[in-house]
Amino acid sequence: MAVRMDQELRESQVPWSLEWLGEPGVPGQASGPEDPGGPAEPGGAGESVGFGAAARALGLKAREFELAVQLGEVRTVTTGLGRRVACEELRRVTAAEGFPEALIARLRVVGTAEGAELLGISQGRLTRLARGGFFAPVRFYVNRYRAVVWLYLASELTEFAIRQPELLSGRTPPGLSAALAAGEDWRAAKWRSRRIGQLLDQTEDPWERAAVLASVLGSVELASAVADPYERAHLRQLRPALVRMRPEAGAVRDVIDAVVTADDPREIRRYRAALASSLGDARRARPTPRPDAGAERPMEDRTRVRGRPRSLWQKLVGRR
User: Fold this and answer.
1) I want to staple 53 with a disulfide (CB 3.0 to 4.6 A). Which of 35, 86, 124, 165 is the partner?
2) How many CA atoms lie within 13 A of 38 on its CB side?
């Protein structure tokens, strides 16, 4: 019933047109009917619209559009009004073969139960494969029991099944079984890697790129990696949010912090090495802002999540 209602809602939406997005060369025209995102930005062929108008133009819900941007399905531009979507990009997406069904299919996310049903395997097997790092979560949320619920792209699960069908049946490989018994779980690290890559793709500014890499390090690790307190303060100021948290999310904030903070020693070393390289680029581009003499030193604002020892599964598969 819910699927049918959702389909009817999509079919009832009016197809987008430049008439209500704002034709190029018509400055100030609204970017959509009752669009809260504001008017289309003037600028001829470079005209852009807000995220709300772009989502409606593509027939996507807010969360679907957010995911489309994260996955690079919809490209954004940085303007004086912030990040927006160029009208030319909307033309490109809507002109693609199979639109909108193909786009919606690529954005479909599934939980463990639905993913297991999609692949024709048990939920336990899907969880074991995810913990082993065979595919990466695309999202997560914390349920009422303060447990992390992982979500996956349906298209990636299908691709995995085609690529490695031998893992969908029979006995679990001995190495993976031993690693899982020892507590191996790659889901959070895989999600962090995906999210950091998405955020790096959104900026070319060297300090912003360094802040992205610093966002997964706890305060102790960051202080060790970046000795200058003013550079650390600047990185914290530029640090993007890896996930959106509601104001009332205080009860689960520690659970979310554990997911977004790197905890494996080798993962931490990789991010520290990447941060050191990015900081070198940033320092050559421009110095970090510094307050007047006598100002108080900036305060740290994050706590460290303890690292895990090297896992058995990583030893078995030769990961470094």
Assistant:
1) 35
2) 14
